[in-house]
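Renewal narrative, Specific Aim 1. Our central claim is that a sequence can be written position by position from structural information alone. The example that follows is taken directly from our test logs and has not been curated for this report. It begins with the structure tokens describing the chain, in the order in which they were read.
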């Protein structure tokens, strides 16, 4: 139990600013809107190839392949209850096809930790993107051994619809819905209920433009996001079957061995993005804070997270761009029930990458 809780907290901390992104959010739209190119970096390796010129066809017909989260494929930071380090193997890969404005994608995720059964997930996503609208409709399934994970099968879907604005105060507005359910062979044996843990909810995202490059040398925007999820018989109101890691999050019982009760989860993400361009150099910095709450039947936790992200891009020649992306984030204040704690935990990362367009 202690090992599961430790891993759960580790995963939540690493994903705290990436909620809703079951099928990696950039892959489908980059595939539809991108050109023939290869991206290589410490976070991922990906390529897009347009076959249309080879077959003398005017409508783009593209294949995209990505290996994701390269820096997290191997991890030995987790420990078990005895303090022994455990090796984890966590590969993620994506493959997609697009024709014109439509695309189809598949993402695979494996969760394998030493001395534990393997969990794996499979996500299928359909979508389209044009100048005014974007739609992404993923269906995700994860499978794990119920003796080690909360459910034998987990299903979730997070449809996203975006309105694209090219002028005015808003640059983009996104409505996202969320549904997840966790099934187990022991679900119907729980006394008094046949309800499996479920999560329903949604989120809103809007990119508020304060200045634009059209009129100013510095572009300032506020990409604000808010979300609310309700867990029905779910210990935590987060079921994202697109990640096999999520099999750890919603086992059916609480710490005292009783049936998990309903829960609620909400967050407000408030970033500010400052962008600048000077010839072949582009850079941005994005400080951000996030307030989140997890509410249970008799208890609640409230956290204030803070972080900053920055990037520098340099286009040395017309078709070759190199970049450096760094981020740092931590948890500043936590309240559980009536107890306040100040946390000094702080983490960061650095990604070195390049894009070759050919």
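The sequence written for that structure reads:
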């Amino acid at each position: 139990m202690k090992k599961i809780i430790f891993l759960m907290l580790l995963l939540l901390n690493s994903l705290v600013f990436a909620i809703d992104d079951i099928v990696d959010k950039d892959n489908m739209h980059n595939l539809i809107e991108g050109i023939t190119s290869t991206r290589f970096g410490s976070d991922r390796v990906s390529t897009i190839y347009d076959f249309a010129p080879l077959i003398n066809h005017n409508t783009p017909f593209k294949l995209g392949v990505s290996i994701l989260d390269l820096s997290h494929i191997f991890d030995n930071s987790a420990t078990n209850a005895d303090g022994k380090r455990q090796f984890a193997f966590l590969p993620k890969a994506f493959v997609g096809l697009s024709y014109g404005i439509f695309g189809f994608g598949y993402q695979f995720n494996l969760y394998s930790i030493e001395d534990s059964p393997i969990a794996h997930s499979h996500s299928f996503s359909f979508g389209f993107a044009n100048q005014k609208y974007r739609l992404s409709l993923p269906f995700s399934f994860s499978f794990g051994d119920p003796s080690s994970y909360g459910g034998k099968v987990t299903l979730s879907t997070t449809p996203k619809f975006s309105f694209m604005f090219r002028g005015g105060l808003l640059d983009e507005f996104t409505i996202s819905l969320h549904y997840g359910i966790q099934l187990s062979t022991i679900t119907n044996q729980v006394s008094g209920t046949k309800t499996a843990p479920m999560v329903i909810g949604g989120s809103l995202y809007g990119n508020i433009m304060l200045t634009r490059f059209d009129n100013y040398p510095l572009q300032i925007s506020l990409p604000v996001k808010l979300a609310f999820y309700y867990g029905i018989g779910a210990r935590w109101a987060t079921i994202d079957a697109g990640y096999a890691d999520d099999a750890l999050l919603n086992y059916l019982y609480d710490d005292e061995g009783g049936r998990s009760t309903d829960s609620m989860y909400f967050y407000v993400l408030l970033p500010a993005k400052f962008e600048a361009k000077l010839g072949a150099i582009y850079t941005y910095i994005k400080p951000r804070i996030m307030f989140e709450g997890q509410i249970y039947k008799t208890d609640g936790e409230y956290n204030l997270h803070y972080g900053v992200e920055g990037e520098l891009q340099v286009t040395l020649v017309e078709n070759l761009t190199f970049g450096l992306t760094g981020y740092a984030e931590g948890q500043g204040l936590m309240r559980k029930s009536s107890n306040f704690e100040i946390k000094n935990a702080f983490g960061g990362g650095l990604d070195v990458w390049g894009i070759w367009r050919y």
